[in-house]
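This is your field. Have a critical look at both lines of this record:
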Amino acid sequence: MAGFSSQVVAAFLLALPVVLAGSPKTCSNPQTSCKNTTAVSDLCCFNAPGGQLVQTQFWDTSPSTGPSNSWTIHGLWPDHCDGTYDSNCDASRAYTNITAILQSYGKTDLLSYMNTYWVDINGDDESFWEHEWAKHGTCISTLKPSCYTGYTAQEEVPDFFQKTVDLFKTLDSYTALANAGIVPSSSATYTSTQIKAALKSAYGFDITIQCASGALDEILYSYDVQGSVQTGLFVKAAPVGQSSSCSSTGIKYLPKSGTPVSTSTVKTTMTTSTTSASSSSTGGSGIFSGSGYLNAFTSGSQTGCLISAGTWYTSGTCATYTATASGSGFTLTSSKGSCGISSSTFTCGSGVTATVFTASGGYLSYGGSTTFYAAAVPSGSTQQTLYTTSHSVSVSFQWQAL
């Protein structure tokens, strides 16, 4: 750039969006945090000691924050598997420029979303984000810089905020409560049992609620994670050690001022975007039974499902599978025939020898692993073959009983 000073050139380069050069470590057959049966030394593929990741949401009314018909984000907290937690784990990474970091990585859409749904009660969103990152983000073991290949400075920051937002988008608390007749009101009151039951019905597991001055103001959703926060599978779980501060009766759910939004364009309800691994869907013993769908999950979010030939698809109608008990597990069939693993490939058809599968946490498991692989995430009319050996994309399949 002839004719420009070095300072001008440097400023220009800093203003350019940075393409993430690094990539999270590849994790082969990772164990699930808080559920591991053996010690795990590789903390880039296993979240510890903060093994239960808690997605927390606010309902602020004085003053009101966010849309009047949506909860807002508090954060993503790595709790120990007993309700305790570490905080402010790495002062050297307590960054004070979250907005600038996200902009440098081209995360303008993420920032726009955060400006609506991750907002500070005092109007200082940047300080709020800095606090959440420093206190909680720096304590997530799988987000350490050493867990990236070809690490680019601060690239763990967009990973943390993107994952938190992605989870929030699948947790429409406002709709879950409204579907049970629990709506904001200046006069009505509700019981703790009513609120928890409504949220559990949508989420599939118990949740934790918090109150301030007798009014509902916070919800905590718990996950265990199979693998890293960046690329692992977020498995819904019951809270471990967290306790509610709400009374049993007379809980207020006060209305917020402000403008409502169309939640269908920015969030999806829990019942449609994710599928709970409840005991009723797995026959109560971790074995799939009856008829159901096999929904695909990548990075904790649903991405299509299996169709009848045993291929992964993101368009069209999911195939109905029948699970039949066999030995210590079960076999699967679709309209094409029996399903099995042949030459490390999952397939269903009339000439296929049935494989006995097992289940873990509501997910299809083969050879002790719930992770399958594909060459890419399917798009449009393209289907992807599934493998049990490593390929570019990791995916797991959760059972949805019909």
Observations:
- The chain is about 20% helix and 25% strand.
- The domain at 42-270 is CATH 3.90.730.10 (Ribonuclease Rh; Chain A).
- The first strand starts at residue 23 and ends at 24.
- Residues 1-21, 271-285 have pLDDT under 50 and may be disordered.
